[in-house]
Structure formats: C-alpha cells, structure tokens
C-alpha cells in the first residue's frame, strides 16, 4: 500500500519494488509494534473484563496488514531474491557464494578438508 | 520435612520483588509474558542498508559549499534549450479555471 511508502528512495542496496515494499512493511511494523503488543496484552489478560478484551481483539484485527510481523520477509540485498536467503548475510545463496569467493564477507572461508 | 505453603508463597513474593516479575501464585493468565517480550521493531527495520551520500544530503550537511550535480546541470541546460525553441513543457495549471481540459473548444 503506497500510502506508507516513502516519497524518495531510502534504501541503499538493490532496489526493486519487492525490496522497497518489504522495507516499507518493516518501517510500518516498527512504528506500530508497541500498540500491537499493548492490544495483545489486553487480549491475553484474563483478569480484565471480557468486554474490554473483545474490543481489543476487534481493534487488533482491524489494524492494517502492514503492521503485522508475518508480512515481513527477508530478501536478498544484492539481488532482491526472496528465496534461499542466508539471513546472517542478508543475501541469496548465489550472491553469498559470489561475495564469499570474492572475499567481500569477512570471516567466511571455503571449507576444505 | 514439609514446608508450609505460606512460607513458599513468601519466598515467591521475595523472588518476584528481586527479579521484577509479577506475583501471581494462582498462575492466572495475566499476559505479562507479552509485556516481557523485547520490541524487535528497530532491529527489523534496519535490515536494508540506508541510502547515504546523495547530493541532497551533502547539500544539507555542507550548506557553505556548492555541491555540483552533473545530472541536474544537464537537465537544466536541456530545459533552457527546449524553452528557447518553444518546446518546454507548459506551466502547471493550479486551478480548474486555468485548466483547458474541461472547457469545450468551439
């Protein structure tokens, strides 16, 4: 949803629409996380009146889908791929191999024994 | 030797005070688990590296220096040439009255 997207490009890595969208989702999630957690607390707290908890449930369900953590997906920062990502390096497996062999990743060495 | 329940509860109370947790001997579902969760939003939002070193940022950082933007210069030059030839884009219409789109030509 483009209402959340920043008007200027604000990521310095490989930028295609999927990466930009995922970045937008991350920012929206970070901004709304306290509110979501507060609502979740109210819902899980059985000592609160049932009415309040039901209202909190409704409110949480009505929040925008971009505020949900499950919307976020790790993507390759070098090539934008969405599958086969090594999350420690934030790269797809092929980009990881290329960068590791080129020596761009400190501490990564090809195994040989 | 069996320890009386009241002593155990006292111990629990002290434990809760020391470790800053909620005293809840009936084990009611109070949702404190959620309050104890760390907020991960900042770490999640930092996944993609920020865009740095753009000309706009440089100009903001060093207002005393003149930062040249070759692309912008080229564009301005092109616009000047186009304007001299009468091929520049028309001025933006600000009001509906100015706009000819909805006025019938006849």
TrEMBL record, chain A:
Keywords: Ribonucleoprotein, Ribosomal protein. GO terms for cellular component: mitochondrial small ribosomal subunit. Belongs to the universal ribosomal protein uS14 family. The keyword Ribonucleoprotein applies. One of its GO terms (biological process) is translation. SUPFAM superfamilies: Glucocorticoid receptor-like (DNA-binding domain). InterPro entries: Ribosomal_uS14. The keyword Ribosomal protein applies. This is Glucocorticoid receptor-like (DNA-binding domain). GO terms for molecular function: structural constituent of ribosome. It comes from Lophiotrema nucula.
From TrEMBL, chain B:
Signal peptide: none annotated. Residues 82-106 are annotated as: Disordered. It comes from Lophiotrema nucula. Residues 95-106 have a biased composition (Basic and acidic residues). The keyword Ribonucleoprotein applies. It holds the Pfam family MRP-S33. Residues 84-94 have a biased composition (Basic residues). Belongs to the mitochondrion-specific ribosomal protein mS33 family. This is Small ribosomal subunit protein mS33. It is found in: Mitochondrion. Its main location: mitochondrion. GO terms for cellular component: mitochondrion; ribonucleoprotein complex; ribosome. Coiled coil: none annotated. PANTHER family: MITOCHONDRIAL RIBOSOMAL PROTEIN S33, SMALL RIBOSOMAL SUBUNIT PROTEIN MS33. InterPro entries: Ribosomal_mS33 (IPR013219). Keywords: Mitochondrion, Ribonucleoprotein, Ribosomal protein. The keyword Ribonucleoprotein applies.
């Amino acid at each position: 949803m483009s209402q959340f997207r920043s008007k200027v490009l604000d990521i310095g890595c490989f930028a295609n629409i999927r990466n930009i969208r995922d970045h937008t989702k991350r920012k929206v999630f970070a901004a709304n996380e306290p509110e979501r957690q507060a609502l979740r607390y109210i819902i899980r707290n059985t000592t609160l009146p049932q009415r309040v908890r039901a209202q909190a449930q409704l409110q949480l369900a009505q929040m925008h889908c971009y505020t949900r953590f499950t919307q976020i997906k790790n993507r390759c920062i070098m090539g934008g791929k969405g599958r086969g990502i090594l999350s420690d390096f934030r790269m797809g497996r092929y980009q990881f191999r290329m960068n590791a062999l080129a020596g761009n990743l400190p501490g990564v060495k090809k195994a040989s024994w | 030797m069996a320890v009386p329940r009241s002593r155990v509860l006292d111990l629990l109370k002290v434990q809760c005070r020391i470790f800053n947790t909620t005293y809840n001997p009936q084990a009611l579902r109070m949702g404190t688990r959620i309050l104890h969760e760390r907020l991960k939003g900042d770490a999640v939002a930092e996944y993609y590296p920020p865009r740095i070193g753009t000309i706009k940022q440089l100009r903001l950082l060093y207002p005393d220096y003149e930062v040249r933007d070759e692309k912008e210069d080229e564009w301005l030059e092109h616009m000047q040439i186009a304007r001299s030839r009468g091929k520049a884009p028309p001025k933006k219409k600000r009001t509906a009255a100015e706009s000819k789109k909805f006025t019938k030509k006849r």
